[in-house]
Amino acid sequence: MWQESLALREAGWEVHVICPRGATQDTEPEAVIDGVRIHRYRLRAATGGPLGYLREYGTALWHTFRLARKVGRVDVVHACNPPDLFFLVARALRRRGARFVFDQHDLVPELYLSRFGRGEDLLYRAVCSLERRTYRAADVVIATNESYREVAVTRGGKRPEEVFVVRSAPRVERFHQVPPDEAARKGKPHLLCYLGVMGPQDGVDYALRALARLRDELGRTDWHAVFVGGGDTFEAMVALSRELGLADSVEFTGRIPDADLLRYLSTADVCLSPDPLNPLNDVSTMNKVMEYMAMARPIVSFELREARVSAGEAALYAPADDVSEFAKLIARLLDDPAERRRMGEIGRERVAGPLSWEHSKKALLAAYEAAYAARSRR
């Protein structure tokens, strides 16, 4: 979203961002960064399952509407999900002539199925209804990949010319090599790295179990692993690492500054993308995969449709959810530095070339032109 904001500002738009405040940083209610005005509100993260998310999303919707009215006249409401509720804000501002660009970062029905495991119950049907209403209200839809675009056209009923693929591509200038930090290896020959959110559907537990298999089944203790990021299951994953006897081999950093992130990624021999197969992960583009490739790191992933589309030969793919095979692929790369270099170079070239932000930026600006053209026809 930040890259989209900067691209729109560079194209001549006045950009206002409405979002929650951070817990330990970005706590100011208002800020102007690189010419983008940011309006923040307090938000308590969801706890207690689906009802907790209803409270969180309801609070976010109210504050977003309140701050949007404070901004004044708005030409475009550009809303990313989840939740699929911001069409209500767009409809309220449409009376003043605003267009609605729906930036679909998640397929919420698939997210619901993958996160809660409750099946197609009443809440599932509710989120499906909200998605349909959001599609219907949108002048154009921005999809993060071709799988999401297909859903917008088939399930969402959007015309193909109303859906634009804007990939979440890292800025190459932000993700750059720095000198490796041998101290990060904690005295071991190799460093493994996980970067990203730690939620129920993100597979950190699969990664930890694979590391336990790497040690127990393959006899490999020549590695140290660092897990960078936070999320709903952070404390549970720390506890699981202790339960598996990995406390001395695995380090959890929480969220860290960019300088530390670059230091870990520049030192890492292999990066982990352990997202399990589920309805959401199979069709989603993982930011961490793109960021690993930007840092020229080889990747081990489970076999997922969009993971292969993104990484190609920059990753090795274990059968879905098979932690023993995942461990074997890690070991294979640890033993083959030439292959690690080759895969890293392929990934870097993909992010700098066909998957670069420059391509996505053109699609973003084309989506805005289409939003205006669509409203003019109506």
Short overview:
The protein is of the alpha/beta class and 378 residues long.
Describe the protein's architecture and organization.
The protein has 14 helices and 13 strands. The protein has a 6-stranded parallel sheet, sandwiched between helices. By secondary structure, the protein is an alpha/beta fold. The mean pLDDT is 93.
Q: Numbering strands along the chain, what is their spatial order in the largest sheet? A: 10-9-8-11-12-13
Low-confidence stretches: none
Query: Globular, elongated, flat, extended or rod-shaped: what is the shape?
Result: globular
CATH superfamily of the largest domain: Glycogen Phosphorylase B
Helix content: 40-55%
Proper CATH architecture of the largest domain: 3-Layer(aba) Sandwich
Biggest sheet architecture: 6 strands, parallel
- Average pLDDT rating: 93
Domain tally? 2
The CATH class of the largest domain is identified as Alpha Beta
Portion in beta strands = 15-25%
